[in-house]
Amino acid sequence: MSSEKEPQNTLTRRFTDAEWRVLKELRVSLPNIFAEAFPLKEDATKTPVTIWGVEIDPLNPFDARVSVILMQFLRDENLSVPSAWDRLRDMLRWRDRVNIEKAMIEFPPDNPLPDLLGFDKEKRPIISIPDKRWPERTLAAAGVNDIDEYRRKRISKEERIKLLFDYENNDQCIQIIDLKTLPGGIFGHMKLPKYQTDSTMKEIDNEIQRHYPKSRHTIWFINAPGWFTIEALKNVQFKTVVNRPMRVGRNSRDVQMALKSIIEDPEPDMASKIEKLIIREKSILKKIYRWLLD
Question: Closest Cα to residue 73, out of 90, 61, 59, 57?
Answer without folding.
Answer: 90
